[in-house]
Amino acid sequence: MEKAIKVLIFTDLDGSLLHRDTFKFDEIKDYLKELISKGIFIIPNTSKTEKEILQFNKELGLNLPFISENGSAIYGLELLNLDLPKELILSREKSDLLNIFKNIVPINLQNKCKLVSEMNKKKQSLVFGLEDKKLKMALNRKYTIPFVFEGTKNQRNELSKIIKNEDLYLQEGGRVINLTDRVSKAKALQIFVRFLKKNNKNMKTIAVGDNYNDLDMLKKSDFPCLVFNDKFTLDEIPINNLITTNKPSPEGWADVIKKALVKINEN
Questions:
Q1: Angle between the 132-139 and 121-128 helix axes, to the nearest 10 degrees?
Q2: What is the CB neighbour count within 10 angstroms for residue 233?
Q3: Mean pLDDT, the chain, as a whole number?
């Protein structure tokens, strides 16, 4: 007898599931719990740190597996299958990345990169839109280096080219650029699914995002979902089967998930 379809929802948090400015999700908390009670897996896949996602889990009142720092680490696979590891680290430490960065990037370009870790607390708070405990958790990064780039578009392209030659990436989010190892939300999603498919190949994936750094993740899912973001138009998104909403987060998250689940049930 064929196993029932397992549905995995890989989701960005800020601007996708969480409100873009307040970072709240009270309006959809009950819906999240309803989905999980039906056996649907929700996996945060975000630029946020391990501590930030653990705080999200605490606010939700559930222990979810998750992917942190733009695909740098996977936590909680054992929550879905006791035979799987508690964590998978896919990235080098941030100190290693910073050393490479300082050795390969010309000083004139380094000076255009304002590292958030080197800003005063007031500027850090403005960049992340966070204060006190939540700001501290956002700064507690193990594998990625957030910065604000203050150069021209040509300089930005030059920096990106230099970085790629050393197998590093620049991942652009809503507030900062992150210097990362050769990792991504999409690669982490694929690794996560590969582990679970050892026991159940009858699986469908939904991915939810709202920004450019989510698009690769969306492309690797069966049902890609985009929450409303006024920074770009749908014409800019090269994904044919994209599920969209004109609602912002968090209501927009619930809207696209409902549409995706209808499509899964139709297949």
A1: 90
A2: 8
A3: 93
Distance CA(181)–CA(120), nearest Å, equals: 26
Task: Kindly list the distances between the CA atom of residue 194 and the CA atoms of 131, 187, 188, 189, 205, in Å, as whole numbers in the listed order.
Answer: 38, 11, 10, 9, 12
Q: What is the DSSP string of 128-160?
A: HT--HHHHHHHH--SS-EEEEE-S-HHHHHHHH
Confidence of residue 3 (pLDDT cuts 50, 70, 90): low
Could you give the CA distance from residue 42 to residue 9 in angstroms, rounded to a whole number? 5
Residue 92 burial (CB count, 10 A)? 18
pLDDT value of position 2: 46
Q: Which CATH class is domain 6-89+184-266?
A: alpha beta
Per-residue pLDDT reduced to its tens digit, 64-85: 999 999 999 999 999 988 888 9
pLDDT in tens, 212-232: 889 999 999 999 999 998 877
For 94-180, which CATH superfamily applies? Putative mannosyl-3-phosphoglycerate phosphatase; domain 2 (3.30.980.20)
Pairing of strands 73-75, 66-68: antiparallel
pTM beyond 0.90: the answer is: yes
In the chain, where does the domain assigned CATH 3.30.980.20 lie? 94-180
Residues 6+ apart with CB under 8 A from 116: 124, 127, 128, 139, 146, 147, 148, 176
127 touches 134 (CB < 8 A): no
Short-list 258, 255, 205, CA closest to 228: 255
